[in-house]
Protein 1
Amino acid sequence: MMPAAAGLGMRFGRRTGLCVAAIGVACILLMSRDAEAAGRVVTFRSPSGRTVTGLFTEAEGRPAPAVILVPMLGRPKEDWQAVAERLVSAGVHALAIDLPGLQLPADPRDLLTWHEDIRAAVAFLAGLSDVRPGAVGMAGASLGANLVAVAAAADPGVRSIALVSPSLEYRGVRIEGAMHQYGARQALLAASVQDPYAARSVREMEKMGTGSREVRWSSVPAHGTELLSRDPDLVQTLVDWFQQTLGVN
């Protein structure tokens, strides 16, 4: 006959095993949801021949608008994660991409081709049935903002852009011609009032082109994607902007 204590131990062991198994399943489900929220890695080819790596986070409603997110120099695409998650919650796909390098290229002429990776991202989205045609936007920070302006100017399929801490000129990447070519389409311009060159650039850019130019000032002393991480209100401003300009249902 089995001792009572031993029987109790076996029953307790079975229950403990079931609890551990249940916790394990719950952990797997949570990890799966976290991975889904973080997006999936995608790659595609740029006209320059480079392979572009992106993090694609998808909204539930399909087809949905989409926004391409471009970081500042020296920072990864993951800097946009908070914005991407808020966009997805608002019904907008988000595709954050890396710049071709973390440092400026040795040949300044190579920098003038970096916007081609952003145009490749537009082509990638155009090939997805879950992305609503004609409802693509772009957001960029610092150098990423200048590259976004150049890429959007050359692609009439881009409906709206948001430029965070842009500059009139970034190592030869000039924004004035791009903004005039961008024309009547809508642009949001954002900068810190404590970031002198970006603030001056935004004031000048407000007069460029013929479309609506919305300006958002921040009092936080930061630049580029660092401004996004320190000013949560700016993150919501970007989400609201793309909901409005891309026609989220």
Protein 2
Amino acid sequence: MNGMLGLLHLATFFPPWVDEEPFLVTGLALGGVYALSGVGLIVLFRTTGVLNLSFGAVGAFGALIAWQLINHSGLNQWLAYLVCILFAGVVTLVYGMVFGRALADRDPLVKATASLGVTLILLGIMDLLWTSSGGASRAITLPTDNHGFMVGQVTVSTTDVIALAVGVVITVTTTIFLRVSRLGTAMRAMASDREITATLGVPVARVEACAWFGCGVLAGIAGILLADLVALDATTLTFLVISSIAATLIARLSSIAVTFLAAIVIGVVESMVVPIESLTNYADATPFVLAVIALLVLSRTRALSGERQGF
């Protein structure tokens, strides 16, 4: 009897699967964007030792510039998106070359805090230039939103497919790039020991510049995709980077493959929690809840492995 009551309680707690299906699609798309963001964060961290907390703000700023160019300057959509990506890349590169280099020998916490300062500055500028008071509504709608297909009763837009596909492509190509290219090898060497790498004749400044610019480019791409998938709001886009950071934490800021898998799981769970009425208000906490659980499990597994080996 108690078992039946428990099943009935679960049935009322979770919405019907048909209500969850659209959120699964959205979650996979978001997971793809979180994955490409996580890859950018990990490559930059492994190369320079900086956890770039300004990633989301840079992408949000670029997306708002693209919106401005499209709606007020009449610029072609794709050119506006290219401006967004280049803006994000250049801003991140300039920060890395000026402040990143100056802070190269400081503690990782100091480096991360400095990038958080950039986030606050960019948020302030965005609030001045694109104030949200007065009910102003902005949106970026990619042309691919108008095309798609049906999976059962769910409509899947081409944008959803692109978001997931970009995450997969960035993950695979970055992994191959780091393994087979000269620049990728230099980045991996710097991740092991920056000073020894420099003494071997590797142009450290140039390698770091590539890492900063690449991270910025991915921030711009993520900003455009998230502005379409979620909302073109400076604060929302800025702090969506938290989900990507959670994925990188699960991967211990080292494994690109684990980051991808974690990002997909976070995106799906975060989205599918939304239609559960009692959990809707806690959906934003999902990334770090999953990160904490994963880290606890990994730590426990490592501890048990150490005990078996006699450590």
